[in-house]
């Protein structure tokens, strides 16, 4: 069975959010699941804390829903642009 076509892509820029990212993602996923097929793209904008590890853990925990993307430090605008380019 093929997965349904993505109808909504949400891009969430992340910078040094290791302490909060899991709760934010779980809450966001709860809302997105009511809307139909989606993807949540987490863009790590060169975090210096454990955000990258948390994003990887969340992508593994929620496969197909959480999409990780790491970029060198570039700022929120670039993180949003790169995440949008990744969107299906």
Describe the structure.
This protein is an alpha/beta fold. The protein is 39% helix and 24% strand. It contains three helices and three strands, in the order βαβαβα. The chain has helices at residues 21-32, 51-61, 76-86; strands at 8-14, 38-45, 66-71. A three-stranded parallel beta sheet has the order 1-2-3, sandwiched between helices. The longest helix has 12 residues, at 21-32.
Number of helices: 3
* Order of helical and strand elements: EHEHEH
How many strands, which pairing sense, and closed or not: the largest β-sheet?
Answer: 3 strands, parallel
Report the strand count: 3
Anisotropy-based shape: globular
Q: Termini, distance in Å?
A: 19 Å
Structural class: alpha/beta
Poorly predicted regions are none
The amount of beta strand, in percent, is 15-25%
Helix content: 25-40%
Q: Order of strands across the widest beta sheet? A: 1-2-3
- Rg is 12 Å
**Arithmetic mean of pLDDT:** 95
Summarize the structure.
The protein has 88 residues and is an alpha/beta fold. The protein has three helices and three strands, in the order E-H-E-H-E-H.
Question: What would the keywords be for this entry?
Answer:
88 residues; alpha/beta; globular
Helices and strands in order:
Layout: E1 8-14, H1 21-32, E2 38-45, H2 51-61, E3 66-71, H3 76-86
Parallel strand pairs: 1-2, 2-3
């Amino acid at each position: 069975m093929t997965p349904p076509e993505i109808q909504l892509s949400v891009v969430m820029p992340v910078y040094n959010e290791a302490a909060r990212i899991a709760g934010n993602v779980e809450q966001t996923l709860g809302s997105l699941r009511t809307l139909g097929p989606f993807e949540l793209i987490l863009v790590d904008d060169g975090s210096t804390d454990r955000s990258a590890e948390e994003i990887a853990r969340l992508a593994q925990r929620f496969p197909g829903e959480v999409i990780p993307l790491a970029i060198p430090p570039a700022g929120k605008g670039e993180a949003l642009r790169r995440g949008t380019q990744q969107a299906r």
